[in-house]
Write a structure and sequence with these properties.
341 residues, alpha+beta, 3 domains, 7-stranded mixed β-sheet, two-stranded antiparallel ribbon, 10 helices, 9 strands, elongated
Length: 341
């Protein structure tokens, strides 16, 4: 790779017509778009699209000559077009260690939760993906590779100390450790990214805050020039947003439960009301049928049956009882006893 920062128009013309644009740009280095803009600025033609897919004869036919060839020795300044190369996050992490001193022992951390987590991870064996993981009551959730363990614990200590300074507490009694912000539990994790192809950790730390779909910024991952250690303050500030989202979701869930409970109660009362009224309506229909039967028996009585008077007497009493049970007072009394109105 050349380190030149200037060249002549003729040299640049020869370069772009001897290599594909992206390969020519990689020799500086710069992007192929930046190289194309540089050529356009200095009136240097570039090969058309599909030029390098053609044969040698067609390529020679397509080649465009350099305009103002007498200015071919004019020098072109390339420095401002060069691509700025960001340092690798692993190199940056080695050059800028976190402020917390990491000794590899639980006693090297200031926060009690960090010390407990370090004690659990001390001597832990990597899983099938090559990562060690801490899960348990009062333990911060960490899943990283062994080489990243010391840094992950340092980041955890920084995060917990920053939470203490912001007057947040750390819940260590129920499940994994979580930030308690304005009375709401905001879970967090420190994870190492897993490569999709290999399924192995790739050396980038990620702070995961809150729950899925809880609102607010949720992931902070190592980036060039920006490690997660430099974003601790942003994580602490964003914890309030997640706490409000958790509270709002809990209130919505509570409201939904109360609404469903009210609907179920109303549905149960409706069934009881319908059952009571249908039962009384059936009794009233039965009373009307028996009353019609009694009228018919009296009309057809010729005095030859000694049992018929007793039948009619009992029928009249039963009809009166049914009609009384279907009256307003009786229905109101039963509804009050059933507590359905």
């Amino acid at each position: 790779m050349t380190t030149r920062t200037e060249m002549t128009r003729q040299e640049l013309y020869d370069l772009v017509w001897s290599l594909p644009l992206h390969k020519a740009a990689a020799t500086f280095p710069m992007s192929h778009l930046a190289l194309k803009r540089l050529c356009q600025r200095h009136q240097i033609p570039v090969p058309p699209q599909g030029h390098w897919l053609k044969g040698a004869d067609r390529q020679r036919q397509d080649q465009i000559s350099l305009r103002n060839g007498h200015l071919g020795q004019q020098r072109i300044w390339i420095r401002r077009f060069l691509r700025r190369r960001a340092p690798n996050h692993r190199t940056l992490a080695a050059q800028s260690p976190p402020a917390v001193e990491v000794t590899g022992e639980p006693g090297g951390f200031q926060h009690q939760c960090a010390r407990r987590t370090a004690a659990v991870l001390d001597g832990a064996r990597p899983n099938a993906r090559g990562a060690v993981e801490a899960v348990g009551d009062g333990i911060a959730h960490i899943r990283v590779s062994p080489p990243m363990l010391a840094r992950a614990l340092a980041v955890l200590d920084l995060l917990l100390l920053a939470a203490d300074q912001a007057a947040y507490s750390v819940s260590t009694t129920e499940g994994s450790a979580a930030l308690v912000v304005e009375g709401e539990r905001v879970p967090f994790s420190i994870l190492e990214e897993i490569r999709r192809r290999t399924g192995k950790p790739d050396g980038r730390l990620t702070i995961v805050l809150g729950e899925m779909y809880s609102g607010g910024h949720r992931l902070w991952t190592d980036r060039p020039f920006h490690l997660v250690e430099s974003r601790i303050a942003d994580v602490i500030c964003e914890a309030k947003v997640h706490a409000k989202a958790v509270r709002a979701r809990r209130e919505r869930r509570k409201e939904a439960i109360e609404t469903r409970r009210t609907e179920e109660t109303e549905h149960m009362h409706r069934r009881k009301r319908v059952s009571l009224l249908v039962e009384r309506a059936d009794d009233l229909d039965q009373a009307a049928k028996l009353a019609r039967l009694a009228v018919h028996l009296r009309e057809t009585d010729d005095g030859s049956s000694p049992v018929l008077p007793d039948i009619l007497k009992w029928c009249d009493a039963y009809v009166a009882e049914l009609r009384e049970n279907c009256g307003a007072m009786a229905v109101s009394r039963d509804a009050k006893e059933w507590r359905i109105w």
